[in-house]
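Hey, I was hoping to borrow your eyes for a little while. I've dropped the whole record in just underneath, so have a look:

——
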Amino acid sequence: MITANLLHQACAQLGCPATKANLLGGYSQNVYEIDCGKKLVIKFVKSSANGEQAIRSEIEWLDYLHDNGLSVVKPYHVTAGSGINRITEEFFIVAYEKVAGIHIDPSDKTVWNRELFVKWGAAMGKMHVLAKAFTAQHRRPQWFENDLFSERHLSALEPEILKRLQQHHSDFSKLPTTAGVYGLIHGDLTHHNLLYTDHQVTLIDFGDSEYNWFAYDIAVSIYHAAQTVKDEAERLAFAKMFAGHFLDGYAREHTGTECFSQMDAFLDYRHLFSYAYHSVFADRSQLTEQQKNALRSMRDSLLASSSYFGSSVLPN
């Protein structure tokens, strides 16, 4: 938890009053907006060698994407050449310039429509093209290095869930990892991690960025867009429609379709991964009844069927 004292220290370092800090959220309630003459978004991160490495590599990746013309959140370097700002021995902060735009509301059909879906896909396609030419100085993790897959966390999963996860991993180990199909991805490009303004999308929150298959990155967007449709009978039709528009935009920037044959497997895997991740890391005491019910529903669907949609979402 971020204490008032810690927030005061961070704001003092950045030269602004803590009274101008506004909690935005974050998985650990660790993200704030502040006003230092320039509006910034700051994220508190617990100090560790791995944590600092992760932030340095995220900043390097974002700077590269921004400098090559992709609309992404821009890291704010308080000290030239460094995006890490230590507050205490236990915490440091990383800052980003606040991006203009609105968070996307799927109920607003003036925004949640074909135009957005195409632009969303095009932005991901451009990112994947840029990823092929990116040479990192600071290492980002491979997908299989996610903390969820530590022995300690895997042992907390139900046997059937663990078995499904291991089968997917075995299947994925046989897939090609050549530059045309595999590289650095966003990892969580849901509508929550997009800002929309003047018919342009800006990508934010690259904390889950990792080396993975490009098709998995696409599957994440399709899966979470489909999650906005509460009626299961309508969800597949929406997923197919969304995937068609999204892939149309994607193909305008990135023409490779290798590994798309695995898209449905990646969609099923995302459903499984999401349940496993939240069941391990979510603080149950802080979950609302709605969130608890959602987890139970995910579990029930996983145990009832290995296929989330029951049919392919890819356009014919």
The longest strand covers residues 39-46. The chain has a mean pLDDT of 91. The chain has two domains: 4-97, 102-304. The domain at 4-97 is CATH 3.30.200.20 (Phosphorylase Kinase; domain 1).
